[in-house]
């Protein structure tokens, strides 16, 4: 009896040892930096010299900086333009891939998924060339058939936002299609068969069977897409360059530019804190909405 | 009779529509790759002429020589390979150890500690970006690979994934029997658990390697020396030089993209399965 107690203690000690690397590393490189951001947000610091306490000055600065508001606005606009179409097209593509009518399913799936394997840097560079400002840029060339003057894709307000949204859309739509497809494959085929016998159209099948049954998957995709959209950084940096024009700067890009272009680590931290609260609010709203949708479904 | 005929007709229209939709989607998917390849084989003058060239040209080799003259392509590829492999091996080891502890060992606070791990998954790491950078300057890790590798070993999702897998795949009787034979807990991990979860290593490995390979923000922040650049950071620099030699830039991007695409096409079923499993599990 005593021996087994000793044994148990030993096992527990080993278990703690096995899980300790995560907690140690997270404490040093995850938790501490986050808490330290809250501290740093009240200091002026250029990364080299002494930190000086400035109270709320950093927050005053960013809240009176028009570019900060642009950054928030851009993040939401690009987030919406980049992800909402993705979810709709992703569901449709997955539905088509799941159809029993087609052959070559694997080939189609592979082709549609391929963009996801490409790095974001590569995507931004490729689209930068496709959407080049020159007359001979691919998109400008196509537009010339419709008598549209060449557009300065990485300078003008809406073109910048649209191009970045298209990059996001192109890289992620295939990934989400695969996730939706995995969700759809767990929907019993008998449901569709029954609907077909009742004379349901394809559109009715999607609306009344696929989407309700797919709710958990949709929740997951919306959730990850939202968090991803709030962290958008690489596309604007590569597409716009270090200047990060205000037409396309995002929240993370704003704080990165503050820190690593202007050496203003204090205001960058203040921006990080604001971003932190925006993310918390969004996660909360997301959870609330999905919970409510779940409940009304059950009540019915 | 008429009814079935009608039915087949309707079916054929549906079929045509599905094929059309998927073909259109696939073409949109593939077109940027084709355009990248075309531009990588053309001179800058050809690219900027009106109308632009729509078919591949003859400058594939020439453009790549220009890339080699402007960036250390193979050096940064080696850096990427080293960093991504180290992270992958480290994550697989640490996550399977922790996953084993959470799946099969008894200890106080197990549930609580596991939920803490799940919560950390929801917090975006960028929020601590500036202090993380500060820590790296204090450790004097700027321009060293450990600045990317060590934080890269934090992987809550991996622990979660491994725990699920080990719980189902490793029979308790096997562990008990090994204990009877006097095996230490680590011996059990090494001789029984690790070999059993090899398939999980493959799937998690793919996910982690790809993330590490494509990672950009953090390597950009801490690897400032050009000789330490990973491929993604180096590509960005090439693109930013803005000599506007599109042929060269596309060539660099093309050759940097090819390896991952080849690996993907070789293992595409495993790849897609890993990623959709990963999503479904969480």
UniProtKB/TrEMBL annotation, chain A:
Residue stretches in coiled coil: none
Topological category with respect to the lipid bilayer: Multi-pass membrane protein
SUPFAM superfamilies reported for this sequence: MetI-like (SSF161098)
GO biological process: transmembrane transport
Keyword Transmembrane: yes
Membrane-spanning intervals of the chain: 21-42, 76-98, 110-131, 162-182, 217-240, 260-289
Localization per record: Cell membrane
Gene3D superfamilies the UniProt entry points to: MetI-like (1.10.3720.10)
Family the entry assigns: Belongs to the binding-protein-dependent transport system permease family.
Protein name: Cellobiose transport system permease protein
Classification of source organism: Bacteria, Bacillati, Bacillota, Bacilli, Bacillales
Automatic annotation (TrEMBL), chain B:
Family annotation (SUPFAM superfamilies): MetI-like
Membrane topology per record: Multi-pass membrane protein
Cross-referenced CDD domains: TM_PBP2
Compartment list: Cell membrane
Pfam family, one: BPD_transp_1
GO molecular function, one term: ATP binding
The UniProt record lists the keyword Transmembrane helix: yes
Source species of the chain: Halolactibacillus miurensis
Assigned protein family: Belongs to the binding-protein-dependent transport system permease family.
Residue stretches making up the ABC transmembrane type-1 domain: 77-267
Annotated GO biological process: transmembrane transport
One GO CC annotation: plasma membrane
UniProt entry keywords in alphabetical sequence: ATP-binding, Cell membrane, Membrane, Nucleotide-binding, Transmembrane, Transmembrane helix, Transport
Residues spanning the membrane: 16-37, 81-103, 112-135, 141-161, 188-213, 246-267
Protein name in UniProt: Cellobiose transport system permease protein
ATP-binding among keywords: yes
């Amino acid at each position: 009896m005593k021996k087994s107690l000793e044994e148990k203690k030993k096992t527990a000690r080993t278990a703690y040892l096995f899980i300790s690397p995560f907690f140690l590393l997270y404490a040093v490189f995850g938790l501490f930096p986050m808490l330290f951001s809250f501290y740093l947000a009240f200091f002026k610091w250029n990364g080299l010299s002494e930190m000086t306490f400035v109270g709320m000055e950093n927050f005053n600065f960013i809240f009176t900086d028009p570019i900060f508001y642009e950054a928030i606005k851009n993040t939401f606009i690009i987030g919406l333009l980049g992800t909402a179409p993705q979810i709709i097209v992703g569901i449709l593509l997955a539905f088509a891939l799941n159809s029993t009518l087609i052959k070559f399913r694997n080939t189609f799936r592979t082709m549609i998924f391929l963009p996801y394997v490409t790095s974001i840097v590569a995507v931004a560079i490729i689209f930068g060339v496709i959407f080049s400002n020159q007359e001979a840029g691919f998109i400008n060339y196509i537009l010339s058939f419709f008598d549209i003057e060449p557009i300065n894709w990485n300078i003008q307000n809406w073109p910048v936002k649209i191009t970045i949204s298209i990059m996001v859309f192109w890289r992620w739509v295939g990934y989400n299609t695969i996730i939706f497809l995995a969700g759809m494959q767990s929907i019993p085929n008998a449901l569709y068969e029954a609907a077909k016998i009742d004379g349901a159209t394809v559109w009715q099948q999607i609306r009344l069977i696929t989407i309700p049954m797919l709710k958990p998957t949709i929740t997951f995709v919306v959730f990850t897409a939202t968090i991803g959209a709030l962290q958008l950084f690489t596309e604007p940096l590569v597409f716009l360059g270090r200047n990060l024009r205000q037409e396309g700067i995002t929240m993370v890009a704003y704080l990165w530019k503050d820190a690593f272009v202007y050496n203003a680590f204090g205001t960058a931290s203040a921006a990080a804190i604001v971003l932190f609260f925006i993310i918390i609010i969004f996660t909360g709203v997301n959870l609330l909405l999905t919970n409510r949708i779940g409940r009304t479904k059950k009540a019915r | 009779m008429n009814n079935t005929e009608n039915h087949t007709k309707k079916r054929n229209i549906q079929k045509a529509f599905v094929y059309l939709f998927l073909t259109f989607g696939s073409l949109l998917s593939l077109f940027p790759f084709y355009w990248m390849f075309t531009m990588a084989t053309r001179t800058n003058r050809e690219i900027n002429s009106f109308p632009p060239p729509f078919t591949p040209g003859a400058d594939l080799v020439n453009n790549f020589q220009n890339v080699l003259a402007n960036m250390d392509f193979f050096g940064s590829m080696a850096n990427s390979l080293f960093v991504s492999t180290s992270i992958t091996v480290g994550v697989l080891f640490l996550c399977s150890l922790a996953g084993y502890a959470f799946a099969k060992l008894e200890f106080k606070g197990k549930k609580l500690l596991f939920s803490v791990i799940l919560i950390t998954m929801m917090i975006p790491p960028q929020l601590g970006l500036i202090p993380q950078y500060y820590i790296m300057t204090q450790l004097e890790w700027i321009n060293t690979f450990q600045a990317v590798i060590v934080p890269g070993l934090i992987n809550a999702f991996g622990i979660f994934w491994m725990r699920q897998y080990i719980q189902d795949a490793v029979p308790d009787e096997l562990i008990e029997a090994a204990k009877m034979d006097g095996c230490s807990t680590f011996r059990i991990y090494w001789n029984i658990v690790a070999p059993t979860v090899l398939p999980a290593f493959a799937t998690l490995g793919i996910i982690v390697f790809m993330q590490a390979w494509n990672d950009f923000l953090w390597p950009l922040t801490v690897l400032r020396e050009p000789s330490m650049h990973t491929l993604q950071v180096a590509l960005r620099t090439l693109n930013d030089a803005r000599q506007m030699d599109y042929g060269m830039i596309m060539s660099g991007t093309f050759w940097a993209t090819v390896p991952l695409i080849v690996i993907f096409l070789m293992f595409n079923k495993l790849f897609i399965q890993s990623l959709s499993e990963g999503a479904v599990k969480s």
